[in-house]
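Quick entry between incubations.
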Amino acid sequence: MTLQNYDPAIANSLQAELDRQREGLEMIPSENFVSPAVLEALGSIATNKYSEGYPGKRYYGGCENIDVIEQLAIDRAKKIFGAQHVNVQPLSGAPANIAAYEALLEHGDTILGMDLSHGGHLTHGHPVTQSSKIYNFVRYKTDAQGLIDLDNLRAMAIEHKPKLILVGYSAYSREIDYAGIKQIANEVGALTMADMAHIAGLIAGGQMNNPVPIFDLVTTTTHKTLRGPRGGMILCKAKHAKAVNKAVFPGLQGGPHENVIAAKAVAFKEALEPEFKIYAAQIKKNAKILEQEFLARDYKLMFGGTDNHLLLIDVTNKGLSGKEADHALDAAGITVNKNMIPDDPRSPMDPSGIRLGTPAITTRGMKEDEMKIIAGWIDEAIINWQNPKKLANIRASVKELTKKFPLYRELKY
Ligand SMILES: *Cc1c(COP(=O)(O)O)cnc(C)c1O
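Done. Structure below.
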């Protein structure tokens, strides 16, 4: 029996969501569209199998096919990033980070991580998280130019003697000097961890610095620029392999989601293709065009611009808040997210900024010409945020444009 026959409520909602994805401009920088092959592996019968343990060392029988799948995912990830060891079982980015801390640290140890409003992630020590109650997080910030000041980082590292220095961000738009940070860590005897959740695809495509050969440990999601299924992964030096594996299972998780791991393996195969380099380069080119278009229209770009796939924009000089801009753009068929700016004077639920990026619209095939048109629409929507008719007009134009870039052509629920 098909899903539509058995459970029309779910099927219809999935169809509505597919239509929404097709007809809008998805510009949340952490989102993407997986390939049909990734989708097929994700929806496969591998979901039926219990396989606690690791390839060749399982607590369940019947794992011979699952072992092949998981080993392929591991080997491909190693090849993409030049890693000595990879664990593909973390269920998502947040649990990957928790397992990484557990693998490297004792409870109570000090971690030097970036402040959330400056682009860090909740899991990097925000007071609302469980990790912040277990470890002693000290937070660094970007400087007045919006860059990471290594002299300040060194001074903080000498003062606080962290066991771990943590880089890798959710809203930061600049390149990261991993070698410079590793140097500071060596000076104070700290371990190094990079969370490349947002930029893993850009690194895989050779478009940004790769922390994997330099740092002790690197965590990532697999569903952002890397364009795989929703999930996480840990890459590390061989000397941390045992601790990492034990921290993921049995430390934190039970049975791995082998359907997701199969889909990760497919996405990693795609990331090894020459086309993926072109994709990653186009993500950056598209973000650069948006940067230029917004600067020309007097938008206030945080960190001075972008070296990656995203822009963090303070919209308050346009007479509205981040939440109001987010809502106006939604009405115009353009999905972004409201976001704090560094040391935001406003609240997290109604901050000063919006964050937007190019990974998903680049997957759809959009290039420089479309970016110029889209930047114009975003500006128009922000200027006319209180004019529902104008916003509806933009939405109609957005829908017209998206028809030229079909998404999941054959799919129907
Ligand atoms: C997205 C993100 C995460 C969390 O990933 P989830 O899959 O949502 O748990 C962790 N770290 C950074 C830097 C991120 O951007």
